[in-house]
Specification:
This protein is about 25% helix and about 20% strand. It is of the alpha/beta class and about 450 residues long. It has two domains: about 240 residues, Neutral Protease, domain 2 (Orthogonal Bundle); about 190 residues, Sandwich (Jelly Rolls), CATH 2.60.120. The strands form four sheets. It has a six-stranded mixed β-sheet, with helices on one face. It is elongated.
Length: about 450
């Protein structure tokens, strides 16, 4: 777990949960440009690996921490972010202080802000694991790249504001790992945790200690930066300075999207569809993630040959359904108007890969159909809004008879419906809806082939 402390903590040289002790011989190393001072132990319980291949007199690991930290700061500065504020000599110099101590497997890094009770911008320091023994990183270089980029972005955040919006703090810091080291294993691994829990609201991670989902929102920030350019993340941090709370951040985010000639609706609905084309379902979707095949696949809320469901869809969240379709006219209807919801239908190709959406049903009590070949289809049901509450609407998918429970009385699902030529004369069964019957969809859309998881390493 990468920890982010917004309250001043005793520095490792002064005691605390993760600190040097009486067994340690503590020395310092100033990085090449003097931007970072690394504190480490050469003997004792917190001693680092003393390998010194270059014969500089400083352990290679310690030099790597200093060099990576300076490189990270340069990348962030070049991107337009504020750099961590000076601590004005608290560590014996104006350099940013990095402490290497043994976390004992409980965590692998921590940023601590020293605000003196202030809720605004403040300085701080970071602490990281002294040897990463047993942490599961590929090698020490990988561990250093991940930890310096992640923790120093917390320092960037602290230069703007303090906040308890952990989904934003950890998600953007994990995205920053990608900015520094594109498509590193740690970033991609956490993105999969978002895929695992796509039905959860973006800004509502599980309660308790910082969960994987908070880090996993990095996938959303990657999507946003890819659609609008990485400068959009600088704009988000500037907005964060004035709006550090959850709800305000979401509103500010939507305003930034509008300034980029987009909307939260457009961005999040595309995000929901993009997340379908991952893992074994990657490879055929236009504009899928560069690392889509390395992610896990989204889970279906329900699988079957038809659906009559009433699942709750939370704001900025998505549920997915897997349909095994025998072929013929595929019907869709909802029992109520649902303006907060977005729906798309995707066929899988012969190799099981998700294709672009070719059908966008209207979320409402309308009998709609499309001619669909036999095969597997996925239905994306997303709430790309900032609604105050979740939406829970009976949703029916399948044959004309299957959707009757979701239609108002006396809605004909016969030959007036696009793609249908069987006038049954049957009416809806009456779901208690008060909406007036809507005109059936007038245009058929062709579907089908040929028709058109900070808890870090070891987190389970």
């Amino acid at each position: 777990m990468l920890l982010f402390a917004t309250l001043a903590l005793a520095r490792p040289t002064e005691g605390g949960s993760w600190a040097f002790d009486e067994t340690d011989t503590v020395v310092t190393y100033d990085s090449e440009q003097g931007l970072v001072r690394v504190w480490y132990s050469v003997e004792g319980n917190n001693a680092v690996d003393l390998d010194d291949v270059d014969g500089s007199g400083v352990p290679d690991f310690v030099e790597a921490v200093g060099a990576s930290s300076e490189n990270v700061l340069l990348v962030y500065e070049t991107a337009g972010f504020r750099l961590p504020l000076s601590d004005e000599g608290k560590g014996g110099s104006n350099a940013l202080d990095a402490y290497l101590v043994d976390f004992g497997g409980d965590a692998d890094g921590m940023w601590a802000s020293e605000c003196g009770g202030s809720s605004g911008a403040c300085s701080g320091y970071f602490t990281m694991e002294n040897d990463f023994a047993g942490y599961g990183y590929g090698d020490l270089d990988e561990a250093v790249r991940v930890l310096t980029s992640h923790e120093l972005f917390h320092g960037v955040q602290a230069a703007y504001a303090q906040s308890e919006a952990v989904w934003f703090l950890e998600g953007t810091a994990t995205w920053a790992e990608h900015l520094y080291d594109p498509y590193n294993d740690d970033f991609i691994r956490f993105c999969s945790y978002y895929i695992d829990d796509a039905g959860r609201s973006l800004s509502e991670p599980p309660a308790g200690p910082v969960p994987a989902f908070a880090y996993a929102t990095a996938l959303w920030w990657f999507h946003l930066a890819e659609r609008h350019g990485e400068a959009v993340m600088v704009e988000m941090m500037e907005a964060f300075a004035d709006h550090p709370d959850d709800d305000e951040l979401l509103v500010a985010m939507s305003e930034i999207e509008a300034a980029h000639d987009s909307t939260l609706w457009d961005d999040f609905s595309e995000f929901s569809m993009r997340n379908l084309a991952t893992g074994d379902r990657a490879g055929a979707y236009t504009g899928e993630y560069p690392f889509a095949a390395e992610l896990r696949e989204v889970k279906d809320e329900e699988a079957g040959t038809s659906f009559n469901v009433e699942d709750r869809v939370y704001p900025l969240a998505t549920v997915y359904y897997e349909l095994d379709w025998a072929g013929g006219d595929l019907y869709f209807a909802m029992a109520e108007d649902a303006p907060d919801l977005f729906v798309s239908v995707h066929a899988l190709d012969a190799e099981g890969r998700a294709l672009d959406a070719t059908y966008f049903p209207e979320p409402g009590p309308v009998s709609q159909s499309v001619s669909a070949e036999a095969g597997t289809y996925w239905i994306v049901l997303s709430n790309p809004s900032l609604a105050d509450d979740s939406t829970k609407v009976p949703t029916c998918i399948g044959t004309a008879a299957d959707i009757e429970p979701c239609l108002p009385d006396e809605v004909d699902t016969g030959d007036d419906t696009a793609g249908g030529d069987d006038d049954t004369g049957e009416t809806g069964s009456g779901c208690g809806c008060t909406s007036a019957p809507a005109v059936p969809l007038a245009t058929a859309v062709m579907l089908g082939l040929g028709l058109v998881t900070r808890r870090r390493r070891g987190l389970g």
